[in-house]
Specification:
This protein has two domains: 129 residues, Impact, N-terminal domain (Ribosomal Protein S5, domain 2), CATH 3.30.230; 65 residues, Alpha-Beta Plaits (2-Layer Sandwich). The chain contains five helices and eleven strands. Helix 2 crosses helix 3.
Length: 200
């Protein structure tokens, strides 16, 4: 199944405690990297007395980009375990932040890795993870005499129309699941008087 991915659509929270240290975990749907800073800033205000705000994110559906941040914890004891669970759950377009309140007892490297991992598991288990289809969008351009053949083909192939612009000539944008994209392109490419362009 090369044209599906898993993500979340709304925030969720989780929690883990070890030797007095408290780990509050938050999962957020993420559209782009620019959103991360605002979310972290908001959490730092909310948890101003917490010592660490560690996080990891995954973005995109095919060539996935990732980032992990330890925020002052020993290298690879926080961001990496969070990211590891995002990969394990195969979720993308998601940010997980784990906020730590220090409890007075050092947890050691293995204890920290376990704490950040477990806090992430807890938030992902409480999240509503959904499977979505990867779609490709195409733009069609044609003149009015071709309107009926185009619309009949769209109906027959059960394609989703995203927008139409019917003025002097016709412009239409439709989406199709990735595995069907080549077939749809071929059909319209062979329709005389119709030009087709892939948008993503």
């Amino acid at each position: 199944m090369s044209d599906v991915y898993k993500t979340i659509e709304k925030e969720s929270t989780g929690y883990f405690k070890d030797k007095g240290s408290k780990f509050y975990s938050y999962a957020y749907p993420l559209n782009n990297e620019d959103e991360v800073k605002g979310i972290i800033t908001r959490l730092k205000k909310e948890h101003h007395s917490a010592r660490h705000h560690c996080y990891a994110w995954r973005l995109e559906t095919e060539e996935i980009r990732t980032r992990a941040n330890d925020d002052g914890e020993p290298s690879s004891t926080a961001g990496k375990p969070i990211l590891g669970q995002l990969q394990s759950y195969e979720v993308t377009n998601i940010l997980v932040v784990v906020v730590r309140y220090f409890g007075g007892t050092l947890l050691g490297v293995s204890g920290l890795i376990n704490a950040y991992k477990t806090a992430t598991i807890d938030v992902l288990n409480s999240a509503d993870i959904q499977t979505k289809i990867i779609e490709n969008n195409f733009e069609l351009k044609f003149e009015y005499p071709m309107l009926n053949p185009v619309m009949n083909t769209i109906k027959k192939e059960a394609l989703d129309i995203l927008s139409t612009d019917f003025q002097e000539s016709c412009k239409l944008i439709f989406s199709v699941r990735k595995t069907e994209a080549e077939k749809a392109h071929k059909i319209f490419n062979e329709l005389y008087g119709v030009s087709i362009k892939r948008l993503n």
